[in-house]
User: Fold Putative amino acid racemase from Taibaiella chishuiensis.
Amino acid sequence: MAFITLNKHKLRENYISLDNLFTSRDIEWSVVAKVFCGNPEYLDVLVQLGIGQICDSRISNLEMIKKLSPEIETVFIKPPAKRNVARIVAFADVSFNTELETIRMLSDEALRQDKIHKIVIMLELGELREGVLREQFVDFYASVFKLPNIQVAGIGTNLTCMYGVLPNHDKLLQLCLYKQLIEAKFNKVIPYISGGASVTIPLIHKDLLPAGINHFRVGETLFLGTDVYHSKPFPHMHNDVFRLYAEIIELNEKPAIPMGELGQNLTGHTVSFEGVPPGSVSYRAIVDIGLLDVEDGHIRPIADDMQIVGASSDMIVVDIGDNAAGLRVGSLIEFGMDYMGLLRIMNSDYVDKRFEETTPRRLEAAPNHAELSFAH
Assistant:
């Protein structure tokens, strides 16, 4: 069975690195834990780090966090679905919102549950995903401030996730100015400007982050050590907190070019072998993981002399060249992942989740038995 491992020591070092960075700039931050997909053992590692606030986009995952540590503040980081309003109020202390009708329902439900539900109102700054349009923003706030049991804890924005619109000083300065406008017009205090994410971290290093941005939501950089803005690793952080291992279930020397007339494959593509020398052969290892678990473009073999050459629903084929490592059926191949690869793998029930100390030290044949709070 394929499995993924988490290195707790490396995760802690990444966490300390980020916490020191944010603390030095008087920025508070929360961990976006959706890559854990509610896995209680992995979530407990976050709890043990002393994190005060955890974000997720699945309410069942926030429910699991509350079971593990009721004192951790939970944040639902996408506009709530109306059918989930009762559970949102029950398990999310804060939610990100863009629809007035939904906020009214949250208000009604908070009254029923005798709670104050905190919200962050998202502003559209060009990514064209979630966000209230700027020309509607003041009227939107005017309506929200009238609702009982709703506390406006912050203003926020999302960038990069869909179209790749990058954050910059000007865009984030706009967010700060809108916060000042709302506070002045309504005589209210809005504690947080949640304008930071993993992609925004390089702006801190370059002193380009407006002073008003005081809250970050970070997932990818914590878990993968990635400089998302420049699509490369941060040199001072671990990018191998997670590793994926898949077992070789077939290993043979085979031709590099298939034989016969080629049509569309399982994914609807017609593969071209232009430039591949006729008659070339190599060792091809089939491993026990497939497109049902992860898209092959989001994982890569760690070994430089290996490359993925094909995939189907339950198997991935890896070209291992002349097999200089002497791999055999039952050996493990180690893979790295990008953020989407990690998310898909963690969401697969067919991939075991372990800690690194259970990883075999040598990748050989398998054995016979197989503190932030929005409380202001």
In short: Residues 242-358 form a domain with the Elongation Factor Tu (Ef-tu); domain 3 fold (CATH 2.40.30). Residues 10 and 241 are 6 Å apart (CA to CA). The longest helix spans residues 169-186.
